[in-house]
């Protein structure tokens, strides 16, 4: 009668650990990229939903509506960085500042997952007119995530209220991705 030992040899353990390490090395970057893409899609959807809500409120109530990045829950920040969140309000008196009697149509919280959203320099507020158009010039939003400048994209809102997707300039992509 021979006795057999139960268990693994050192060689079997090393092979199992090597296979596990290779699988993790392949899975972690793919998971990170998928996660960043999902958060970016959520941010894009939130912005597009905001524009639809603002447009609907402006046309139904025949009032101008302001969309702006926030510094606090009730104040516009005056920044072109929309990553900390934004709000939409009916601008009844036309001063582009939210007053206590002006309805908040929508609020968006800070973007999650390292997503950054920046608007054209100098475009710190959007004014949606009762005809559904965007007052002023076109505004370009640059959207980026942890995958870097190469994966950045743009959303351009025209004066007529139409949205199109595009590719940012190298400078805009770098500024968004690396905070320049």
UniProtKB/TrEMBL annotation:
Domain of life where this protein originates: Bacteria
Intracellular or extracellular location(s): Cell inner membrane
PROSITE patterns: PROKAR_NTER_METHYL (PS00409)
Domain General secretion pathway GspH, chain residue ranges per copy: 50-161
Keywords: Cell inner membrane, Cell membrane, Membrane, Methylation, Transmembrane, Transmembrane helix
Gene3D superfamilies: minor pseudopilin epsh domain
Main location: membrane
Membrane topology: Single-pass membrane protein
Coiled-coil region(s): none
Entry's transmembrane regions: 6-31
Family: Belongs to the GSP H family.
Name this polypeptide is given: Type II secretion system protein H
Organism of origin: Lysobacter niastensis
């Amino acid at each position: 009668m021979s006795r057999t030992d139960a268990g693994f040899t050192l060689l079997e353990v090393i092979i199992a650990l090597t296979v596990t390490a290779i699988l993790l090395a392949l899975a972690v970057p793919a998971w990170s990229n998928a996660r960043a893409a999902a958060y970016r899609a959520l941010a894009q959807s939130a912005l597009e939903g905001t524009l639809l809500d603002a447009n609907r409120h402006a046309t139904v109530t025949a009032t101008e509506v302001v969309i702006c990045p926030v510094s606090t829950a009730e104040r516009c920040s005056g920044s072109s960085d929309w990553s900390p969140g934004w709000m939409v309000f009916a601008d009844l008196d036309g001063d582009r500042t939210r007053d206590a009697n002006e309805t908040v149509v929508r609020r968006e919280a800070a973007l999650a997952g390292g997503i950054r959203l920046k608007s054209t320099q100098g475009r710190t507020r959007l004014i949606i007119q009762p005809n559904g158009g965007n007052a002023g010039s076109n505004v370009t939003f640059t959207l980026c995530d942890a995958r870097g400048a190469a994966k950045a994209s743009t959303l351009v809102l025209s004066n007529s209220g139409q949205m199109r997707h595009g590719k940012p300039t190298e400078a805009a992509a770098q500024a968004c991705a690396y905070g320049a």
